[in-house]
Amino acid sequence: MTFLSIVLPVYKVQGYLRQCLDSLLSQSFTDFEIVAVDDRSPDYSGAILAEYAARDPRVRVVTAPENLGLGRARNLGLEHATGEYVWFVDSDDWLSEGALNATAERLRETDADLLIVGWDRVHWDGRVQAGTARKSLAAAPDVFSVEQWPKVLNILHVAWNKVVRREFLLRLGFVFEAGWYEDVSFSFPVMLAAPRISTLPRTCVHYRQRRTGAITRTVGDRHFEVFDHWEHALDLATKYASPTDEVRGLLFRRMIWHFLRVLRHDARVPRESRARFFGRMSEMYKTHLPPAGYPLPARTEGMRYRMVAGGSYRSLRVFDFAVGRARQAKRLVRRAAGWVKRRTRQVAGQVYYRVQLRLPVDQSLALYGAYWFRGVSCNPAAIAAKAAELAPHLRPVWVVAEPYAKAMPAGVDHVVAGTLPYYRAVARARYLVNNVNWPNRLVKRRGTTHVMTHHGTPLKKMGADQADHPAAVKDPDFRAQMRRADRWDYSVTANPFTTVAWESAYPCSHETLEVGYPRNDRLATATAADSAAARGRLGIPAGRRVVLYMPTHREWLPDGRRVLDTERFAEELGPDSTLLVREHYFTTPAEPASGAAVVDVSDHPVVEDLYLAADVLLTDYSSAMFDFAVLNRPIVIFAPDWPVYRDVRGVYFDLLAEPPGAVATEYAALVGLFQNGSYADESAAAARASFRTRFCSLDDGHAAERVVRRIFFDTNQ
């Protein structure tokens, strides 16, 4: 028997259908079928379905005899489904990578009759809202009934976030009713009747918030159909379950909440029909009020419930108008106060900064920053550590942005960016060391030394060299970029290649320190014991092959889109491997499965720990390859979009012609490299040796010392 049937009702979704189908058919989990119901769609949706069915046998198309509507179309799909479980996915939404595999694993773990999965809301303008139910789903027991965990009734009552055992549906005869809001009369009875419910607090569904075409944004009296569906839901709840007083109270409260939302927020009840809609709502309140009562919401929402109970629509209108105006005024006051506070702080900071600039330079102060003030890391951290050893007369202070201040290591002296101590430090520091540029308004004082350490050997074009590749440029003001670079006294480079690249990227009058990368000193001197300790800190069991995956950022991909399904790849690696996934800091973190097979290390503070723990690095175009090569361990390049990256970003050399190891441009080839061991064969080792000769010759464990002696002691030793 097929494990999962995905029922896909299709009607007027030609603009979204391909994305939906692609998200299903590209999943690593394959034991599923798609029962696509062509609900007599008048657009090209039917042709798209036929195209996909012709090339993939997992897609079966059922054509409705007439336009049935969403609920009845789902019923038709259910009649043709053969899977153990059924998932009613909406055809304008799409699934996240690894969603089917995660869902199947959870169902097998719990043997649930009903699984409720997580989702996010993706707006038409690109905004993404993380699922508001994620915390609730995570707080649920492993397996429960509604009586055991009634809070499940507060989770969004739709069909597409639920995977249901098909035999359970057929045995009880659950089907969708016709009309708008058909989810109500399906979801609540199914939840109440299910003996075994479980949850998956992972984003599985990307819930599209359409600009046009959504039922909840359509004006009309069909919104009155919500009452019939709630009547039917309550009847079925009594038929298939014996709700406790607590469950009855929560169900009633949810019903009134839904009515108010349809009237006030989501829907478009015609103005002339709103009093009548409220009257029907009030009747439902009086008819179905539980004898034991219900938990009344607090504050303004509770006031609305009381007005529904009293049947006073005029009072509700006046109340909502007053609350709306008060909230609007509060928002305006808050925004104005926030703007005044920010401007006052900025002006005060700049005035204070200008005053501090007139005071003597603090000859003992060395100010450090890294990655836009994210904390202690990278080359500045290595230089600061060596300076503490060789130049103890200097006082090191780090600049950190407010969101990262709490994560600063204990005992590290730091100032928070934008505060008065920060302005005093940047105005009076003798030495300023950073791996990115300091803010635009910072003044380069006479008698101070600015050290730019950079944070990677460049494959992609940087600085002024980006002018020939404008598609990926985030800061097109190259004159301002160069003004910031003009403040550098020293530019630290890792190798002759980088020295040459920076010559054209930053045509400024600084001195180049071609000394190797300080952050790689730890890698150059690492021992087997260091690697074992790094694995221990990450909780990786001994004897496992560790693959570290570090993709770079792609400006042209939508946020959240990945080029590699990490869960699927982890399965391909086999049971004796662990895949560490570290996303680029510009990328919204994905949600890889947690456990021995895949570990998300995107937030791990020290990347060198990850290098030491890994047996092999898997990357695409990240500068991590240049650092990891210092360890002389296998590196695999997965470059499925190399021509795009090369042409859009611009590159300093042909990575595929001069790779640091084995290369794959297709997923099947990538899997093959690991399964047959060729990622570590003689050919890969020879490529790595050539790569190391070109890029790692200066990484001998003493780069930080060379920088410290040159900067703080003015020697070249």
Automatic annotation (TrEMBL):
Pfam families assigned to the protein according to its UniProt record, in alphabetical order: Glycos_transf_2, Glyphos_transf
InterPro entries, per the entry: Glycerophosphate_synth (IPR007554), Glyco_trans_2-like (IPR001173), Nucleotide-diphossugar_trans (IPR029044), TagF_C (IPR043148), TagF_N (IPR043149), Teichoic_Acid_Biosynth (IPR051612)
Superkingdom: Bacteria
Keyword Cell membrane: yes
Membrane-protein topology: Peripheral membrane protein
Localization in the cell: Cell membrane
Residue ranges annotated for the Glycosyltransferase 2-like domain, each copy included: 5-128
Alphabetically ordered keywords of this record: Cell membrane, Membrane, Teichoic acid biosynthesis, Transferase
Gene3D superfamilies from the UniProt entry: 3.40.50.11820, 3.40.50.12580, Spore Coat Polysaccharide Biosynthesis Protein SpsA, Chain A
Keyword hit for Cytoplasm: no
Family: Belongs to the CDP-glycerol glycerophosphotransferase family.
Identification of the protein by name: Bifunctional glycosyltransferase family 2 protein/CDP-glycerol:glycerophosphate glycerophosphotransferase
UniProt source species: Paractinoplanes hotanensis
